[in-house]
Amino acid sequence: MALDPKTLAYAFDEEAAGFSAPPRATPLARTLLHRLAAALSGLGALALVLFLAGLELGGGWGALGATFGLLSCGATLWFYVEFKDTVPGIRHDDTFFRGIQNRGLLGWALGLFLTGFYVVLYFYDDWKGRGLPAVLDRPAQLLDPLARLLSGENASRWFLYGFLYTLAVGLFGVRMLWKYRHNRYQRVRTLSVMGFQLGLAFLLPNLLKLFHQPEFYFSYFWPLKKEYLFPSDLAGLWHGGGFAQFAVFWTVALALVGVPVLTYFVGKRWYCSWVCGCGGLAETLGDPFRQQSSKAPAAWKLERWLIHSVLVLIVVTTALLWINSASGGRVLGSASQDFAKFYGFWIGSIFSGVIGVGFYPLLGSRVWCRFGCPQAAILGLVQRLFSRFRITTNGGQCMSCGNCSTYCEMGIDVRSYAQRSENIVRASCVGCGVCAAVCPRGVLKLENGLPGDRFEGAENPWKTLVDSLQRQDGFGYEPWRAPKG
Amino acid sequence: MHVAIVGNGVTGVSAALRLRALRPDWRITLVSGESSYHYSRPALMYVFMGHMRYQDTKPFPDSFWGEQRLELVRAWVTRLDLEQKRLELHGRTPLAFDQLLLATGSKSNRFGWPGQELEGVQGLWDLMDLKRLSESCERGARAAVIVGGGLIGVELAEMLHARGLHVTFLVREKSYWNGILPPEESAMVTREIRAHGVELRLERQLASIEDDGQGRVAAVVTDRGERLPCQIVGLTAGVSPNLDLVKDSGIKTGRGILVDRKLRTNVPDVYAAGDCAEIVQPGRNLLQQVWYTGKMQGEHAAEVMCGAEQDYDSGLWFNSAKFFDLEYQTYGRVNLKVPGEENLYWEHAGGRKALRLVHLGGQVIGINVMGLRLRHEVCERWLAEGRDVAHVLAQLGEANFDPEFFARHEAEIAAAFGARSAQGVA
Fold it and tell me: Is A96 close to B375, i.e. CB distance below 8 A?
């Protein structure tokens, strides 16, 4: 017998038992700055609780500074001290050992909290109508000075939501800037989503109100912002003066021409991980949870069915509204409006908000973008079939470690392409670039080149489209193939 | 036709996939005592540090094997019965085969150090090693000593350091991995290891390992008489072909399982590939023990089993690694002290990026980069076409594989090298 008896006695079942966290030999060093950051955040949180409980804390800007101001300073300092003493590089130690990042108790608690927040936010009138506590009124009050400054009005719950959203993108954007301070692609991209969120999705729409112009979001287009191609909304804007007419021109031109043209040149990333607010939140607040997206083949199948169904739904809804409008309401009566309401409730509220953000800690940061967003579906079709964008695999250098797939927020099994030396050209890829960043062998590169050399069949996109539709597994599926040889 | 493959690492699996592609009707069985499914061995470190879960290291979904009709047997092979063409399995009925591929991989080297059998002393090769390492941490290990400065040593240092252990890294050489890395790159990695807080001690060898009285490690004693208390000793002084199974089987061995350039052993229908194989060829025999060659040899063995006539040719030598946060790529012939070779070396002012061109009278024969990414295809083409330094410098941008927006250094490199050739240094 040549084998070591110890080897033969080895009876560990790695599938059933897995590998748990090896205990740390020494606790993580917590410096004075850590404590200061925690104290600032703690004070801010305490002030917020006191304010919600009825204390005025001086009111106005003072109260805002004592609550969100302190919290923001604390969080910014915390993210700084977390990374400042580390060598610049990928810092993913302990990711799967922390419950909050790996569906532990904290993860579920956070998921419930976020989901609950969205339920209250979207159904607040119903909520209050049933005599439940008006939990969002008081925090909105806190923001009154800021809201009055920007928009001339007191803060509504939607102002509160916009503020919290922008704050989350800002603070966790700072975290991304520190975390990826060695990676200029990540830094530029993060600054971009922070800028678009703050400027075009928060400040400008509020300032427009201040100047008595229609509240308009220049960074959202149909079909994500579905109203922006609905006949009644466009008509309403069109009568709103010169600025509003420019807005109509802008949003129609972008939706119909700008989106496909830009996607042709650089892929869907220009929108999904550089401009979009949903993408912006996913890339900042969502970054700690990106590893929770499912890479199972079944999830990919569900994705293809769901996202294209939502696209069909919104196209049909929009078409019905236009038919109705053109016929002066004679053809469909109120049916098209009912259809639009149905879409707004189930897709706009439940899917994109409650599930999309609420489930960050459970299903990863891109649930909405991956399974539901009709804008992503359009961008994806263009990217897959008619774009210059691809992720190039560097020869035969992949050693199948799986960092790329693990940290793909869209649930793409990046490794399955890299290990057979194929480019990654997937409709869902938002081009965040994290796969390339975490690859320990420098195997992946996001780049734009000639569309025809991206994958087998790319030179004939229409045929590829028709072929894939005829496949039993449905659009976009590429069965595993043997390595080339 | 039934092909049995012993070992489900990258070599065995690459062979199985190639066989399936070429022979849809053959029966193919992968046998492993270590794991139920193929996983990526280089990813073990990420499981230990919490970057990934074990299941994330599996390159194919579990459903894949059934779809591809590849049979998986979880059992240790206890004996090769080459006369009856069957594998004797631990606790299972024997498995008959028509053709056999041995892809048994490597074992960590142990050089007969006193105390090397103590609990807490281990290499880093397989799941058992990962489990042992975890158990040592659970027993409260606070300090570790790693012996031997190769790639696995650095990985182990990074892993244990990530769990808060005090790590001392003993390297026999004057600077880290200087058998492979030229002095400047070696110095750069040395700096990187130290920057992360690992105590790197150069020109040290292991003399003995002390027992704590209960069969566990208490300390390491170096050849300079230093005593380093520790609870984990990582032995990473290289690996050797795993020959446990072929001893006394009639299969000829040298350092590894001896095979010809078609990866055939001396026994008909028995092949060997990957880390365990030693390819007999004129001059020095070939022993290749990296991921890429394992993959290529596995695929080649499959093709030979299906009747291919070509000899194995590993093509251009390349490799890549990551030392903590410092990436490294190499192509062609670097640090081999080829007679007449000259080196052009550029290092970024920050000290974490470098590029080296090795040339023979102007013709580039090797490329090294640290902290930069190069495009494999382009480097391979340059070396195959025998391009000269001027061409490579003029086209350097084409080989850039860094992410978009990264600082570009082509002009600086060309200027630095140009200045040096003008002075006659190059």
Answer: no
B137: left (phi over 0), alpha (psi -120 to 50) or beta: alpha
pLDDT per residue as tens digits for the range B41-56: 999 999 999 999 999 9
pLDDT of residue A458: 87
Q: What is the pLDDT of residues B211-269, one digit of tens each?
A: 999 999 999 999 999 999 999 999 999 999 999 999 889 999 999 999 999 999 999 99
Question: Which domains does chain A show, CATH number per domain?
Answer: 388-470 (3.30.70.20)
Instruction: Sort out which chain B residues have CB atoms less than 8 A from A25's CB and list them.
Output: 137, 140-143, 163-166
Q: Which CATH superfamily is domain B318-422 in?
A: FAD/NAD-linked reductase, C-terminal dimerisation domain (3.30.390.30)
What residues have CB less than 8 Å from A130, skipping those under 6 apart?
Answer: none
Question: Per-domain residue ranges for chain B?
Answer: 2-107+240-305, 110-237, 318-422
| CA atoms lying within 13 Å on the CB side of residue B306 | 20
- Mutate: best of A265, A399, A405, A439, partner B, most B CBs <10 A: A399
What is the rounded CA–CA span in Å between residue A401 and residue A391? 17
Report the alpha-carbon distance of residue A220 to residue A69 in Å, rounded: 29
Q: Which of A389, A385, A379 is nearest to A463 (CA)?
A: A385
Query: Which chain A residues contact residue B376 at CB under 8 A?
Result: 394-397
- Domain B110-237, CATH: 3.50.50.60
Does the ipTM exceed 0.85?
Answer: yes
Interface test with A, best of B19, B46, B128 (most A CBs within 10 A): B46
- Helix, coil or strand: residue A162: helix
Question: Which is it for strands B326-332 and B239-241: parallel, antiparallel or unpaired?
Answer: unpaired
Instruction: Compute the average pLDDT of residues B398-420.
Output: 93
Rg for chain A (alpha carbons), in Å? 24
Give the CATH superfamily of B2-107+240-305. Answer: FAD/NAD(P)-binding domain (3.50.50.60)
Residue A483 has pLDDT above 80, yes or no: no
Helices (H), A99-239: 105-122, 124-129, 137-142, 144-151, 157-179, 184-198, 204-210, 231-238
